[in-house]
Structures are given as structure tokens and as C-alpha cells.
Amino acid sequence: MRMPELDQGILSRRATLVDALRRLVPDGVVADDDALVAYDSDALTAYRQKPLAVVLPKSADEVSAVLRFCSANKVKVVPRGAGTSLSGGALPVGDGVLLGLSRMNKILQIDLENRCAVVQPGVTNLGITRAVERDGFYYAPDPSSQVACTIGGNVAENSGGIHCLKYGLTTNNLMGVEFAMLDGNRVRFGGKALDPGGLDLLGLVTGSEGLLGVVTEVTVRLRPKPPCAKALLIAFPSIEQAGACVADVIAAGIVPAAMEIMDRFAVDAVEAYCAPGYPREAAAILIAEVDGMDIEVDAATKQIDAIAYRNGALTCESSTSDSDRDRIWLGRKAAFAAAGRIAPDMLCMDGTIPRRALPRVLSRIAEMSTEFALPVANVFHAGDGNLHPLIMFDVMKEGDLDRAEKFGAEILKLCVEVGGVLTGEHGVGVEKRDLMPLMFSEQDLAVQGAVKCAFDPDALMNPGKVFPALSACVEGGAMHVHQGRMPFANLPRL
User: Fold this and answer.
1) Could you say which architecture CATH assigns to the domain 228-337?
2) Could you tell me which residues come within 8 angstroms of residue 328 by beta carbon, excluding any fewer than 6 positions away?
3) Which CATH architecture has domain 345-433?
4) I want to staple 40 with a disulfide (CB 3.0 to 4.6 A). Which of 48, 252, 332, 360 is the partner?
5) pLDDT tens-digit profile of 119-166?
6) Can you count the helices (H) and strands (E) in the chain?
């Protein structure tokens, strides 16, 4: 994992730059070396780098002022929400400013008549649902980190969650954003209208991983809470059978709200952690949730039950109450925390594959676990084929991190090989950056680079992320993306 070489000219002017930033955001600049440790990584914790300074604005005007200053002085900017990124998307650079948006955490408007809410980017994902649930509404995307992750970060990564099978990712629940450009100007893409005219610039900036600008306000779609919801807990003698069941359910025309698979490793971990009562004899469990009117929930539950037993299910349990449904989901939502008790470190992968390829890919991951001598827990959004293998390792053991990274890369290569993609919801960041040529030709990457250039001609926004190598060309103002690596400096490891 490598990041661009540091700009020594910027570093030599650090004190002057920090003083200038403090004039722009008087109570929101962190520059003390010890304090910067809190910002030197995100949830991809194998690599660390202190930023030149951290700026914590409270308003969109302060965001614009910081961006305008950084643009004029050619200072790199890395936007950051809560730091829960799992691809290194919020990893700082040593000669750049980390722009933290956590203090912009107000819900500005709840508009139930138009079924939307307008919020600042630092509002947590779960905070939106908590603000409207008494009125019978909720915000659908629900990443596992929803109690901590921010809506601005969700927009940057196009985050999903357990219920994205039926209700979609962030992009399907996003109505508009206010977007701060590098020159400090702010523009609005989308809004409360259901189908705004013109170019789909909202779709362009959603999932752009902080490479184009900074989200300063978000309008999200609110949904009415379904009148009925049931969760099914299904045990299988093999993970391949669980995967085949998922494919058959979708093929039957049933669209559950969620379908999640956990293998025995993950089941054992969560049972030791929070004891949700999962069948310990199962090699894999499938959790499916159906919602809607009572009659359609009952019909779908019976269909899924029958399909599960045709695929060799050992047991199929249906929730009997809301608290019982919460109990079934408890282990799945706690899976990452539970895995953290088994090994000191882990890599959470994020490849997405066609559902028909689930049995083949899961079998191959098991084989690779033996080949790399590293345990892996499979926990993933089975309904849309979004895999989250958790590779366990110990960074203090020589060679473990290298093997874990190679193992992860092989999983992602396999995903592309079977017709899938490198990421479903975690983003490319630095983790998958050098694998981009597996999916995109040099011409493809050059076109993407041209879009980047239109927003950020000096490549100051979140540098070193997404593209294998990126450089600004003074002649003609074109951005060039190369499949080889430019000279990079090694990033410090733990």
C-alpha cells in the first residue's frame, strides 16, 4: 500500500499554513502531533499517516473557506466523516489537510409531506431514523456501522447495508446534495423533486470517494415503516447450499428486504459474543427478512421455507415478534465486533459477484484460506452477491499482513473473474486502487481521470485514492491515469 510522495515545500510552510487555517476556523484546527494520532487512519488500520493538520468546520461557509485557501496554496485535502471507511478512503496524507465534518451534525429539516429530510453531512446514518421513527418513517440504507458512520461518508462511498437488496444503496435513497467545489463555490445537485432535469450530476458525485469535492448538505428519502416484517433463520449443512437457496429465492421472483449468510466460523464467533441462539450444528445460516402487508409477508415466508428445504435446509425458524426478529438480526449486526475478539486484526473485503457464482466463489475462498494459512469468516449480503470475507491475521506476526493482503487481492480477482466487481459498498480507496486495471482498460481510466480533472485540475482532492496512478498535466490541463505506478513513498505500517 503506497501513497504519493510528500510535498516538502508544503511541509516547510506548515506553521504558516496552520496559522492561516486557524484564522479561517478559529476553534477547529488540530495541529499538535500527539492529537493528530487520533486522525492518522480510518477503519483500515494496517496503515497510518499523520496529516499536516486537521480542520473541523462547523458550517458550509467554513468548508468553502478552507477549500478556497487550500486550492490557492496547492494544499491537498482529504475529506473525512466518522473514519469508518474500510478501504482507506479517509486515510490522510502527510502534506495535506484532513477536513473532518463531524461537527456539522444538525438535522436541518424533516419534511414528512415530501418524505424527505435535509441534514448536514456529519449526522449519523442511524440518527436520521431515530429522528423520524416516532412518525412511522425511517431511512433505509443501514450499514453495519450505522450507529457511527455519517451520511456524508455514506454519500462518498455509496454505502449499502443489510436491507439494500430491496431498498437499494445510498444512491437509491438520495434526493439531493449541496456540494462544495475545490474553489470554494457550492452547487446543488438534485433536491426534493423526484426527477430533476438535466445531467445526472447527483449520480456522478455519489460514490466519488471525496475525489471531486465535499458534501456539505444532504437531502435523503424517508420511507414509511412496513406494516409487517418477519425474519427467517435457516440452517444449512453447507455454505454452498445456502448460496444456492439465495439464487433460487430470487429466481422465484421473491424480493426479500434482506438476505444474509454467515458461515460456521462467524456463527461460533457471534454465539460466544452475544448468544443470539443460532443453530450450532449448521455449516452456514441464512437470514432472510420479508416485509410489507401481512398477507404478502405470510405468502413469501411460506415460499422461502419451501425453497430452503428443497436446498437441504436443516431447520427454518420464523420470528414471532419484533423482539424475536431483533434477536435473529443481533448476531449478524454484531459479526464484525465478534470477529475482533478472535484475532487482533482483520481485513474486511467487499467484492460483489453474480448470485449464480456464490457456491463456486465460497468454495474457492475456503481453499484459499488453507493455502494462505489464515482463517476467514464469511459474512455477506447474499441477496445481491456482496461478499464480506473477514480475513483474520496478527500484524505482529511476521508475514501475516502480507499474506492477508495477498489473500484479499486473490478474492477480489476471483470476483472479477466470475463476472463481478471490486467493490459493492466500501469503495476503492487505497485498498483496491492497484486492482482497478482488472476491471478497466487504460482508456476507461483515462476517461474517469478526465472527469476528475474537470472538478479538480491540480489533483488536490483525496490524492492517492481510487486510481492506480494519477498525475495532472499542465499542457492542455488534461488528467492522465496510468496502469503503472508513479513514484510513491512507502506508507508507514503498524
Assistant:
1) 2-Layer Sandwich (3.30)
2) 231, 233, 276, 287, 317, 319
3) 2-Layer Sandwich (3.30)
4) 48
5) 999 999 999 999 999 999 999 999 989 999 999 999 999 999 999 999
6) 16, 22
